[in-house]
Amino acid sequence: MKAKIIITPKKAVLDPQGKTVQTALAQMGYTGIADVHIGKYIEIDLAPGTDKAMAQKMLNDAAHRLLSNPVIEDYKLELE
């Protein structure tokens, strides 16, 4: 089983990296881009036989306490 965690800045938080990329794209002639957000992507391989419900609970806790900053970031967890 594989876990995928996508961490992005909250919409109300200034994202200077995203703004820099958005400006660069506009200067390069790419039009129609309203906003850019730069985040983190984490993949975690789980041991065979791991209980899916237990893994979901454990990884949600880890994402909230360690992998993201819940004050300024949101995360999305997917298990495959």
How is the CATH topology named?
Mth169, Chain: A
Number of strands: 3
What is the first-to-last residue Cα distance?
6 Å
The total domain count is 1
SSE-based structural type = alpha+beta
Count the DSSP helices.
2
Helix content: 25-40%
CATH class: Alpha Beta
Summarize the helix and strand pattern as letters: EHEHE
Assign the CATH superfamily. Answer: Phosphoribosylformylglycinamidine synthase subunit PurS
What value does the Rg take, in angstroms? 16 Å
Mean pLDDT: 96
Fraction of residues in β-strands: 25-35%
Strand order of the largest sheet: 2-1-3
What oligomeric state do the depicted chains represent?
Answer: single chain
Largest sheet: 3 strands, antiparallel
Q: What is the CATH architecture term? A: 2-Layer Sandwich
Bulk shape = elongated
Description:
This protein has 80 residues and is α+β, with helices and mostly antiparallel strands. It is 35% helix and 26% strand. It has a single domain (2-79), classed as Mth169, Chain: A, CATH 3.30.1280. It is built from two helices and three strands; from the N terminus they run βαβαβ. It has a three-stranded antiparallel sheet with strand order 2-1-3, covered by helices on one side. The longest helix has 16 residues, at 52-67. The chain is elongated. The mean pLDDT is 96.
